[in-house]
Amino acid sequence: MNQYVNKKFSNQYKATIGADFLTKEVQFEDRLFTLQIWDTAGQERFQSLGVAFYRGADCCVLVYDVNSMKSFDNLNNWREEFLIQASPSDPENFPFVVLGNKIDVDGGNSRVVSLKKARAWCASKGNIPYFETSAKEGVNVEEAFQCIARDALKSGEEEDIYLPDTIDVGSSSSQPRSGGCEC
To answer: Which pLDDT does position 108 carry in this prediction?
Structure first.
């Protein structure tokens, strides 16, 4: 997140407690948008804060460490927890993007989650877009966030179009109220 927004990486970066928040302006189809990017750190002790952070989201990015099987195994739990707490109107089609991070560590020799395994998991969840990244070296960070922005903006447009409580203002069936006004 910091690499994408600020083009910076720090080994002294402090782990997120609760949530971190950054914004970035992006150009998409000749329009300027401001992305609000929340990092909830994936720590179980902060899961109860999820509803406050997840509601209204247009895309969810799940990040795991390619050098940690436990991190990868938690993807399912985090995806399900997000869907429960965010309560999107169409959970089956809600956009997710998965990032396998830390591909730079030990020249890739510490890796325990294969590209094949990660892609298979994403395919089993409805063909979730998948990127392998290095926040430290900036590998695939821009490409991943372009996909995230595209999916989020597409999701946001679809929600804006959906109007569950429409009122036909041209209807002739309105009744005058006690004040004589039909409005």
So the answer is: 87
Q: What are phi and psi of 60, to 5 degrees?
A: -125, 130
Return the percent helix, strand and coil in the chain, to nearest 5.
Answer: 40, 20, 40
pTM (predicted TM-score): 0.72
> Quick one: how far is CA 77 from the chain centroid?
15
> Do the bridges between strand 20-28 and strand 31-39 make them parallel or antiparallel, or are there none, so unpaired?
antiparallel
Beta-carbon contacts of 102 under 8 Å, excluding residues fewer than 6 positions away, are 65, 66, 67, 134, 135, 136
For residues 23 and 36, what is the distance between their CA atoms, to the nearest angstrom?
5
C-beta neighbour count of 53 within 10 angstroms:
18
Per the CATH hierarchy, to which homologous superfamily does domain 2-7+16-144 belong? P-loop containing nucleotide triphosphate hydrolases (3.40.50.300)
d(CA 99, CA 71): 12
User: 51-69: per-residue pLDDT in tens?
Assistant: 677 788 888 889 999 999 9
Q: What is the mean pLDDT of the chain?
A: 77
How far apart (Å, rounded) are the C-alpha atoms in residues 109 and 105? 8
Annotated domain spans of the chain: 2-7+16-144
Amino acid making up residue 88: P
